[in-house]
Amino acid sequence: MDGQLDRRAELSEFLRTRRARLKPEDVGLESFGRHRRVPGLRREELAQLAGVSVAYYTRLEQGNGQNVSSEVLDAIARALRLTDAEQAHLTHLAKPKQQRRRASSSARAQQAPVRVALLQLLESIEAVPAYVSGRRSEILAWNRMAAALFGDWGKLPAPERNWARLVFLNPEYRELFVDWDQKAYDMVSFLRMDAGRHPDDPRLSALVGELSVKSEEFRRLWATHDVKEKSYGVKRMRHPLVGDLTLSFETFRLVDDDEQAFVTYHAEPGSPSAEALRLLASWGTDAAASVRT
Predict the structure, then answer these.
(1) What is the pLDDT of residues 224-240, one digit of tens each?
(2) pLDDT tens figures, 12-57
(3) CB 214 within 8 A of CB 205
(4) Whether 182 contacts 115, CB under 8 Å
(5) Strand extents, DSSP E, 122-231
(6) What is the spatial distance between Cα 70 and Cα 261, in angstroms, rounded to a whole number?
(7) Contact at 8 Å (CB) between 244 and 267?
(8) What is the pTM of this model?
(9) How far apart, in whole angstroms, are the C-alpha atoms of residue 160 and residue 153?
(10) Cβ neighbours of residue 111 under 8 Å, at least 6 residues apart?
(11) Which of 38, 52, 103, 255 is least crowded, fewest Cβ atoms below 10 Å from its Cβ?
């Protein structure tokens, strides 16, 4: 890939894929005939639902979002039944903020350092795996328990401290995550969301290009144009030392830097997973070393 993603192409493909997943009966329209030339809704059907002209919607789907109003985008989002994350992604692509120019500078393309107080907070949390992630799924900082659970990221070269690279290019992470397919889908969806915010980020474009070349699964998932925000949920893991764990994770966006997120994993009190985490805590760095050797 070149130094940036094509925002117009991204907008076009995103709208096409969202339209293709809807059937006329899904939105209360009558389907005439069994054989339709295109999957999903036709452009004229979508335009009718959104209350805009076919020509207007066609220009938008061809990647021309210039001068489109927020009201029209909202109407199209409703017609396509977009999730909140998908609607935000559509807005990022169609109406990029002026601050995107500042984000494209070489200085802004670099990750902001993790605040000292946040590093101290990480160190003070002894029983819960926690880490700070940044743009492009980069792993910026972590505590001892995160190293015990996921492996000692400190031994990796800085470019490899990246969740997307670990999930798709490191076989050990396929073993660690019981539901690896879901983890992979989530990872790509997060990167897509990031790409909508920063289509001119050369490091993000390089990452997408590398993973597209090296991983068939990544290429397939990237082509779906699905997006989602990091939030909360449950992950099942199979740790080489303590066995199966079921952990809940929470994601906290930093108020002063929404590109950084503080992520924690915890187990239900009194559960076998809580006992497994206690064992990992007692082994500490020895456990982290054992996972990757």
Answers:
(1) 999 999 899 999 999 99
(2) 999 999 999 988 877 777 655 556 667 788 899 999 999 999 999 9
(3) no
(4) no
(5) 130-133, 139-142
(6) 28
(7) no
(8) 0.87
(9) 9
(10) 134, 135, 138, 140, 259
(11) 255
